[in-house]
Amino acid sequence: MKRVLVMSLALVLAAVAVAAQEKPLKKVVFAITTKDVSVGHSAHSSIPQAMNYWKDEGLDVQFTTVEGSVAGLQQLGAGNLQIVSLGPEEVVIGREKGIKIKGFYVQAREIIYRIVAPTDSPIQTVAELRGKTIGVPALASGSVPFAKAVAASAGLDPDKDIKFLATGVGAPAAVALQKKEVDVLALWDTLQASLENRGLVFRRLDTPIVFEMLGQTLATRDDYLAENPDVLVGFARGVAKATLFGLTNPEAAVRIHWKLFPASKPQGGDEAKLLKDARHVFDARFALQRVDNREDTRYGAATTAQWQRLQNIFKEQKLLQGTVPASDVYTASLIDKINAFDRAAVVRQAKEYKP
Questions:
Q1: Is the pLDDT of residue 197 over 70?
Q2: What is the rounded average pLDDT of the residues 5-33?
């Protein structure tokens, strides 16, 4: 009996020791600024969850959505979010408005926004948008300041020469365009791809500044960055791994996303057609997240000079004062740690993945 009690006590103590060694997961609230959680968002939503990339970093990530970049800035500033995915222009604008926000990981090396016209539209250039109406997913969307900057670079006064109309996403945007309620759309890459899946064919309207802009960025508050750098490294490392996983095995990434976000998969229809359409949306975003075709092959990397150029663009177009140093809106201090993972192991995992 005594021996049994001793063994039982030993087992209890061992269990306590193991429990003491297991640290509780750090809770993090992360948001994207659209309700349309398409397969293009899988690198920072479904894949890190399904593959336990965030959990392996000791994180319990609560993924959520807010409607528009303005809401994302407000929620971050209020402390309701720890991390938000924003267009870089919103990071710059938010900082100048007094929100202590800073980007720490550039997801897309190119701007995700664009102005598009139907191919049968007589509008051929941005300058021809004078007196026209631009449809946007929401008036609080980052596509609005982007479109204003592009319009201004073409010699238009964005506050007088063009109008904006919120069209929503998906079918409502297509209907607004077809009914001539709007002349063109200012939207993002994955939304364009989803409309193309509906049969619409577009022509991009660009000006030179479009090709000088950075893309979607993970951002946090200054105080959270100072107090929780390891959390941000772990979160972004999970995104980097998920990006590489998705680029290596896109079909697996799509199916993972459909499983975790079933509403993103259209109901009914031919499976092969659904997968083809999903790949079109997926590729639209992941093509911008590749690093193997960049001079700097580190995930999330950008330079202060690139952010300064972005800030200069918005200052030149009189959309902000440009009083905030570029070093205040982005930091590369975490990039090397974020990229400290075995890429070959992730590639192998993606290739061997079985649903």
A1: yes
A2: 62
pLDDT tens per residue across span 271-322: 999 999 999 999 999 999 999 999 999 999 999 999 998 888 888 877 778 7
Number of structural domains (the chain) is: 2
Residue 255: inside a domain: yes
Distance CA 168, CA 170 (A): 7
The DSSP call for residue 219 is E
203-262 confidence digits (pLDDT tens) = 999 999 999 899 999 999 999 999 999 999 999 999 999 999 999 999 999 999 999 999
Six token digits for residue 164: 């904006």
A 10 A CB-CB count for 97 gives 12
Assess contact for 91 and 153: CB atoms under 8 A: no
Same domain, 32 and 97: yes
Q: Does one domain contain both 225 and 310?
A: yes
Residue 45 token pair: 């939503």
Radius of gyration of the chain (CA): 22
Shared domain for 227 and 346, answered yes or no, is yes
Dihedral, CA of residue 269, residue 270, residue 271 and residue 274, to nearest 10: -70
Q: 3-state secondary structure string, 86-142?
A: ECHHHHHHHHHCCCCEEEEEECCCCCCEEEEEECCCCCCCHHHHCCEEEEECCCCCC
Note the residue count of the chain. 355
Burial 182-193 (b: 16+ CB within 10 A, else e): bbbbbbbbbbbb
Q: Is residue 218 part of a domain?
A: yes
- What's the Cα-to-Cα distance from 56 to each of 28, 46, 207, 223, 253, rounded to whole Å? 14, 15, 43, 24, 19
Domain that holds residue 175: 113-212
